[in-house]
Every structure is written in structure tokens, then in C-alpha cells.
Amino acid sequence: MRPFRLGITGGLGSGKSGVLELLRIAGIPVYDCDREAKRLMNTSLVLRDALIVLAGSEVYKQVEGPNGQQVERSTLNRRYLADFMFGHPERVKAVNALVHPVVRADFRTWAECQGGTDIVGVESAILFEAGMREDVDAVVLVFTPYDERLQRAMARDGASEASVRARLASQMPDVEKFPLVDYIIRNGEEDAITPQVMELLGELRTNPLNNKH
Questions:
Q1: What predicted TM-score, i.e. pTM, was given to this entire model?
Q2: Which residues does residue 76 pair with via DSSP β-bridges, in sequence order?
Q3: What are the b/e assignments for 111-132, b being 16+ CB within 10 Å?
Q4: Concatenated DSSP letters for 138-202?
Q5: Which CA distances in Å does 206 have to 19, 25, 166, 199?
Q6: Which residues pair with 62 in a beta bridge?
């Protein structure tokens, strides 16, 4: 019997990392979509070829060896890709259309290989936008009020208020996620997340099929 698949989502500054750490402490393996997407853009030959066709050969750069000589391996040129996408929503959509299916397939393979656990997690700030809802059995939203998310992100990233507001505006609003999720963990300044995470795991283990909360 395969493990129960729990999707974890939440926008910029929501504090997902604290929830993920608690899940890992509780023995729940968690697949980090952002981290794995970066890995796959460097290791998947299919994805590499598709990105080169879309954005040009400059999207990958040669890696220098210890003495400055070029080696065969190349790595994603993140600055070039960011510049390629900036201000072009259609390019962002095209890149995502290449990356998201590869990440989803990799997650499914990863989940099937997780033995000895009854629950696995997958974390993605854009879980719904990436089409991953159909890959999981339930979704938990880490919810933090907008103003607190704004202040957290500014402090964490050393970014201006305007830039953080722009990043927040580019993400799916929580109000649109509420009807789509099965659980909510509230992570405001006055909220304690540890008991909420423990309650969530208990609910999943005792009543995994009737998982509306």
C-alpha cells in the first residue's frame, strides 16, 4: 500500500519551512518542488534540450575546472533564464509548461520509493498552478495574514516593500485556495504550529479517507 500523499502549500512569507521542519522531525519525508526543479533543470537531458530550444543555448553555461579549463558539464544559467522571463508572462508560462511535468513525474517516482512510512509530503508554493493537486491525496495550506507575510519576506530577503508586494501579487491569493484545500495550518504571530501539525498527522492516520477539515 502506497503512502498517503500530502501536499503542502502557502505563499511567500507564510512560514512553510517551519511546518516542513516539524513534519521531517516527525519522520515524514518531504519532497521540495523548488529545490528539485533546480536539480532537474541541471540533470534532466530532456528538460535541458527543451529549455535550449525555447531560450537559446546561452541558458546553459560551461562549468570551469579547478585550473580554469572548461569541462564537458554545463549548468543552468539562472541569471540568463531570469532575464529571459522577466516582463514576458508568455515566456514564464512556456518555461513552466516544460518544468512542471518533469517535476511532477519525478515526485511520483520519489513517492513510490519511500518505504517504511505511511505519509509523504510534497511542498510547493504553486501546487495548484503546477497541476499537482491530482498527484496528492489532500492539501494543507499554511496560512499567514498578508501584512505579516509582507513583513517576514522583507526582513528575510532584505527586499523593498514594493518588490515583495509585486511578488505576492504574482501568486495565487489565499482566498482562492481556501475552497481547494483540505486542511489549514494558521501561522500568524499568535499561532502555535506544533500542535496543529501533530493534530493534522493524527487525523490523517486515523481517518485518511475522510480528510476534510
A1: 0.87
A2: 60
A3: beebeeeebbbbbbbbbbebeb
A4: EEEEEE--HHHHHHHHHHHHT--HHHHHHHHHTSPPHHHHGGG-SEEEE-STT--HHHHHHHHHH
A5: 20, 20, 41, 11
A6: 74
Coil, strand or helix at 67: coil
Q: What size, in residues, is the chain? A: 213
Q: For domain 1-29+114-202, give the CATH number.
A: 3.40.50.300
Q: Over its length of 213 residues, how does the chain's per-residue pLDDT go in tens digits?
A: 789 999 999 999 999 999 999 999 999 999 999 999 999 999 999 999 999 999 999 999 876 666 656 555 689 999 999 999 988 999 999 999 999 999 999 999 999 999 889 999 999 999 999 999 999 999 999 999 999 999 999 999 899 999 999 889 888 999 999 999 999 999 998 999 999 999 999 999 987 655 443
Residues spanned by CATH 3.40.50.300 within the chain? 1-29+114-202
| DSSP assignment string, 94-151 | HHHHHHHHHHHHHHHHHHHT--S-SEEEEE-TTTTTTTGGGG-SEEEEEE--HHHHHH
All three cell numbers of 64:
570551469
